[in-house]
Structures are given as structure tokens and as C-alpha cells.
Model the fold of this input.
Amino acid sequence: MSKYTKEQIYEKLEIIFRDLFDDDDITLSASTTADDIEDWDSLEHINMISAVESEFSMKFAMKEVSTMKNVGEMVDIIISRT
Amino acid sequence: MQILEYPFDSAYILKNKRSIKKELLSEGNFALTKKIAVLGGSTTSEIVKILELFLLNYGIKAQFYESEYNRYWQDACFENKEIEEFAPDIIFIHTSNRNLIKKDFSPSCTKEQIDAELSEQFEHFTQMWENIARVYKCPIIQNNFELPYYRLLGNADCSNIGGKTRYINELNRRFADFAQKHSSFYINDIAYLSASFGLEKWSDPYYWHMFKYALSVPAIPEFAFNVANIIKSIFGMNKKVLALDLDNTLWGGIVGDDGVSGIEIGQETPMSQVYSEFQSYIKSHKDLGIMLTVCSKNEHENAVAGLCHPQSVLSPDDFVVIKANWDPKDKNLVDTAEELNILPESIVFVDDNPAERAIARGQIAKMAIPEIEKVENYIKTIDRNGYFEVTSYSADDAKRVEMYKANAQRTQAQKRFENYEDYLLSLEMSAEILPFCELYLARITQLTNKSNQFNVTTKRYTIEQMNSVCADSNYVTLYGKLVDKFGDNGVVSVVIGNIKENALHIDLWLMSCRVLKRDVEYAMLDTLVSECRKRSISKIYGYYYPTAKNAMVRNLFGDFGFTLEQSDEQNNTVWSLDIADYENKNKVIKVN
Done:
């Protein structure tokens, strides 16, 4: 059982994304992908992953990072690991 | 800015780099503007962004040139108009043990073989450094090598002639010797830094395989800080003075209350030992030309008595100024600066009392005031802040003459490449260029969906779509896999063409930026043309759809010799090539 609810995770993720991409208008949903956020390219992707890992004190496996399709999948992994 | 001083919160810096940058820029008034070329053997993007912050914090506004991925050597060794025009003030070479030429470490290696390979590897670097000194005449900052993250031979890896650890230690020694003999050449000591950070975390292979970072992203702030310290030192922005509090800073206890015999200093107790070690550390700074002063709320005579403690390492004579009185410390610090004819910001103020630190910080902008915390951490905190980073740039000109003289002699002994083609040939490249096959389909799909720059149509495919394209005889598919003397680059290029009547329409043409300027695209085109001939196709149509990221292939088909057929308002272009007279373009890669 995760210590966070889905809503809490989305809330925390939004803060991370807003800081990282310096854009307070970012809102996230399960279907959000890199195409939806202007500065989210492969170089920023790693910073996002690192920031999420440190926020939730967990680690993604390489395989997960390579196959994650959207924010919803990331949230599912966070839930399963916290 | 305190968040950029050691000990800092790396995760916070990484996450908030944009807002930190804004804040630093809003402070304006930078002492220096400098141009820094970062030539990387691995990804440098985040490193540059974080380095920029630390430099801004030092009052250095930096512009950056970044080489393409792993193009450090070519950028430095061959004529490069872009860098020449950029005219760097500093060139930073970011390499790591991922860039070593030698890959096959084994106990069966002979000493002769290893020595020859070490020399080849070392000359790979010296040739580059000497070229930079000759062409750009600017200081070089060069990483040495972190130790390997695994040890094939276990502990013997450091002693056996074929051990990688031994090999790296030996190379590091040669780098150090070079630095010792050449001014304007500085080692960024990542061998030390990675050990201090924790090699296991530093070299986490995840970051290499995912994003080609040779060090883990969480290590980047410490790394960038280390580089920033060298840079600020080169430009003469080191601190000059250590202003020290006394009670509970240089000794334990309060001399005015406890008396000279009551303070903790000497070898009798653990606490007195730790203060003694700290005093020894402080005293050593005199040899670096750092001035020591006292800034203490005390009666002057008590302060001097404390320093005259028989076991005290420091004595009153070690200090150029002693301010022991009851005035506010910020006033004493400003007075000290005036007496020494330096700026207050050249002072490092060391005080165990957080309140005193906060007041001084509020009153004197840019003075360094480390958060020293516990006495056992005093040395670490001061040391890691790099206030007094030793470089000597000003005494440089005389030595530079020697450097040029030595270069001229070495040049003759070295193999050099007359032109770029010779260089490409020296890479001993061979490629496998074939129609898609099951084995590589996953990699082909992955590469297709993440390539943004060298990608003419930026068309994305699911693995299922790739499967059906692969099975459909109306398509010509090719993947390119490149091996060179440094290793196997894997699948690096993908082409898909759709056959309609006697023409081939290119749906997809992409390449990994890892292999830019290696002529892989020519080898791909040669093979594509021969595949077309097999199928009696006479004409190839190329399409370019511009995106924010793919400008580098705007004229790819033009370079190939295609003719521009049409162009619309969005600058989408269509190109064609009659392949009847096509002659192969690739001369440097052995195919299949």
C-alpha cells in the first residue's frame, strides 16, 4: 500500500514539473507526454526522472524509463514502490 | 547565494536551476564575462547549465560553446571555424574512462603492449592539448579519469599489468606530470571527486546507458562546482584572507570564562585533538599565501592568551590582524579589509556561531561565510568550498614560450592526420547495412521514436507498424550498425522507403547524433541506391519536414545531390534523385 494517494502524487509531480520547466501553468494528467510540454526533451527527461526519484526516495529501473509512455504510467510505478 | 555554497543540496539545484538562474541574473553586475568551450566525450548539457549557475554566483557571466556528443577530440584537433570565431577564454575537456581507447583489459596483456597502448592513449590527449595551445592559446581544464566501476581482476586490478585500475592510475600520473610541466593546463581531479562522492553512485551505469552521461546526474552539481572553482581561480577570483573567530572555532570553550588552562586544544582529549587538527589545517594556508586574521568578541588580552596556550598550533604571530573586541563583527571585518587593502568579498569568515554568520552575511555582500556546523566538519566544509583553489595564471607568459618550444619538438614524433578523411580512415569503421530483421526491430523502433535532430520526417512508428513495414515488399528498409576501433556503436541509422511504381519515396531517414560526421549517411545512401537498382527503381524522392529540432538535416538531400522539387510555406521540401548515374559516396566505412 503506497503512502501516497494518486492525487498526492500528481500534486507533487506538478510542483516538480513546474519548477523544472519553470512554467506555473503546467497541469498533469495520466495521458500527459513529452509532446505536451515545450521544454521536455530527452535531455530534460533525465532531470525530471532524477527529481522524481529524489522527491519520492525511489528509483526507476532503466527498463521502466525506456518504456514509460506517459505520466500515468510513471504514477503507477511510483504507487507500487512507495 | 548560499544555496550554491558547499554543503549544497544538489537535488534542489538540479530541480530549480531555471529559477536560480533568473535570480542570479536579476542581481546583475558581473565582474567578468567569459567564453567557455566545453568539449565533451559524453553528454554535457546538464553540466553546462549547472556550471553556469556556479559561475554566475562567482560573478562570472559565461557564454558556452558545447561540442556535439563525443566530438571533443575532432573539435579540438581539426580546424573549426565555429570555435575560432567563438574565441574561448577557456577550453574544458570533459572526458572520462568511458572514452578510453583500450577496452580489452586482461591479465594476458604484456608490459610492452600496455606501455605502447598507454603512450598511444596519452598522445591522443597531448596532441589535442598542444593543438589547443597553438590555435586557441587559452587555458585548458582537463578531467583526469575516475577509477573503473568494476574490477575484473579484483584487488589485483590495481597491480597486475593488464589491470584497468592500474592503467587508469598510470594515465592519471601522466596527466599530472603534464600539468606540472605546463602552465595554463589544469586537471579537474575527478579521480578524487568521484572517490569523495562515492564511485558507485558517481559511475551508476544507468546514466551512461540511458543518456550517455559519464557521471550520474546527482553528481553533476559537485562536479560543476569543482570546475567553477578552477575557473574562478584562473581568473584571479580566489579568496585571500581567512578571518577566524576564536572561542569554539579555533579551540573548545570560552577563554574569557574558562581561562587559558580550561580551553580545549592539544592532544589530551578527542575534542582538543580535533581543534588542534583544525588549527594545523588553518596554519597550512599561510604557505599558500593566505593571510590569517582574528575576528572575535573577546578582550584583546584574553584572545592573545588563548593563542599563547602551550599546545596551540597557531600563535599570535601567525595573524596579520587581530580584532578582538566587542564591536559588531561586520564592522571588524570591513576594518580588516581596509587595513589589508583588499575587498571585503576577498575574506572567508569562519565562525561557529550561526547568529554571527547571519549578521555578517546580511551586512557584507559576497563575503564567503561557510556553514561550518560541527567542529569535526570544519575542515571539510572550508576545504570543499574551494576558496583558495591553487592555479597560477599570471606567472604564465614565461612558461608559455617553453610550452611552444616543447610542442614543436613533439610534433615531429607524433602521428598526425593530414585531413579529416585520414582521421575517419584511422577509426577503422565497418558497418552492417541491411534490411530490417527481427533481431534489431526493437532497437530500430526505439531509435526511430527518440531521434529528433538527424531525422528528416520525424515520423514515429509502433513496434507493430515496424513489423508490418518490415514484412511488406512495397517497402525498402535499411538499418545501419557501426563498429569502429573504439567499439560497437550498435544500430545508429534507419531508413524506410515506400515503393510506388518506379520510384522510392523516403518515409524515414534518421541517424543517431552519436555518429555525426562519420559518413554513415553516405554509406546508407550507397546501399539504398543499390537496393533500388535491384528492384528496377529509377528515382528516389526525399522529404524534409522541419521541426524545432531537426534543422541539421534541412539540406541533407541537397548534400546528397538531390534536386529540390518543391517547397511550401512551412518550408516542407521535396527532393528527387535520378539514380542512373549515381556513384557511391562512402569512402571510409567498410560495408557488410
Summary: The two ends of chain A are 8 Å apart (CA to CA). Residues 6-81 of chain A form a domain with the Non-ribosomal Peptide Synthetase Peptidyl Carrier Protein; Chain A fold (CATH 1.10.1200.10). Chain A touches chain B at residues 16, 19-22, 41-43, 45-47, 50-51, 54, 62, 65-66 (CB under 8 Å).
